[in-house]
Amino acid sequence: MRALVLCVLLAPALSACRYNFVPLIPPQIEPELPARVTQATLTRDGETLRLQAQVDGRFEPGYLSVAWFNGSAPIGTDSVYLDAAQRRAAFSLRAPEKGAYRAVLSFGGTVLRQVELYEVEP
């Protein structure tokens, strides 16, 4: 008899239909994405290589740097200061010969993107 009374009293606490956490609806999480290059193009215009890039995401103002390579040989560097109002950058490099060109973009010491233009076999 005691066991039956005990089971009846504990039944509501042991039922499977109850919430397991509080609050019932968790708060919405807003992710903070790091700086990233969303658009980058490397094209040739006559004897000049042109690189266009756009940085999106949340970032502190700083320099977007580019390191130019022909194959594995470094051929130049450049940088542009970016902030919340100026998120686009344009770079150019004189390169009269066809080659296997790469441009490595970095922001704050972190490499963000590499763009390539292969006019010959690398």
UniProtKB/TrEMBL annotation:
Q: Which PROSITE patterns match?
A: PROKAR_LIPOPROTEIN
Q: What start and end residues bound the annotated signal peptide?
A: 1-18
Keywords in UniProt for this one? Answer: Signal
Kindly provide the name given to this protein in its UniProt entry: Ig-like domain-containing protein
The organism of origin for this protein: Deinococcus multiflagellatus
